[in-house]
Amino acid sequence: MQQKTESMFFLGAGPLAAILLGMALVPLRGFTSASNFTFVFIVLTILIAEYGGHRAAVATALSSAASLDFFLTQPYLRLTIADKHDIIAFLGLGLCGLVAATLGSQRGERVAQISSARRQLDLLHAAITGLESSDQLQSRLGKILDAARVACPLAAAAVRDERDSVLAAFEQGEAVPRVPVQVLSPRWLLPRQIQGSDLSPRDLPFPKEGARLALAVGSRQFGWLDLWGDGRPADAETRRTLSDVAILLALQLAEAEKHMSTRV
User: Fold this and answer.
1) CB 170 within 8 A of CB 156
2) Contact by Cβ (8 Å): 190, 130
3) How far apart are CA 94 and CA 58, in angstroms?
4) How many CB atoms lie within 10 A of CB 96?
5) Of 19, 176, 201, 218, which residue has the fewest beta carbons closer than 10 angstroms?
C-alpha cells in the first residue's frame, strides 16, 4: 500500500516538477540554446523513474518535452517551435526521456526484487538457526514469525500444536484470530480446491479470513501454521519460502516433542 501511494505521489509530482523547472530556467533562455536545457530535464526524469516507477517517469518525460517547448523554445509561451534545431532538441528530449524512464524504472523493480529475496533469505536463516538454538521453543518460533512478518504479505500468523494451542504468534490487532477453516496445500500454499487450475500463485494473496498449513514430518503431524493475508499478492518465491519454513517448523516441533518424551 505504501509503495502504491508513493507511486501515485510521484505520478503527480514529476510532471509538476517538470513544469516548475521550465519556469525556473526562463531567465537563462537568452544565454544559451534550448538544446542545452535538455540535460536537466533528463536528470529529473531519471530521478522520478528511480523513486516513482515507470508511469511517473513517462509522465515526467512527456511533461518535460512540453515544458521545454512552452517556456524555453521560440516562440515562447506557445506550443510551437520556429527553429529546426529546437525541434531536434524537443524530439531528442522526448526520446531520451522515455528511454531513461524505462531503464530507470526497471532498475527500481530489480532493486525491489533483490530486497524481497534478502528478506526471504533472512526468514530461512531464522528458521534454520532455530534448529540449533538452545532457546525455549516459544522464543525460537517467535523469531521465525517475526522474520515472516517482514518477508511475507501477512497480517497475522500463528504456530499451533496438534490441540490448536498457540505456541507463538504475531498479529496486527489485539488478539490472534480464531482458528482458520481453510487448509492450504504444502507445495504452493494455495487452497486445495484450486489445485490443478490455471491460476498462477502470484495472482493470489493469502486469505484475509485465514488459512492453515499442516506442520508434518513424514506422515506424522505435529502442529499447524496459520496465516492471514494483508491483501498484497504473494508470489511464487514467497510461497516456496514459506513452504520450506513450514518444514523447518515441523522439525522443531518434532524435536521439542522428542525432548519432552525423553524427560518423561
Assistant:
1) yes
2) no
3) 9
4) 19
5) 218
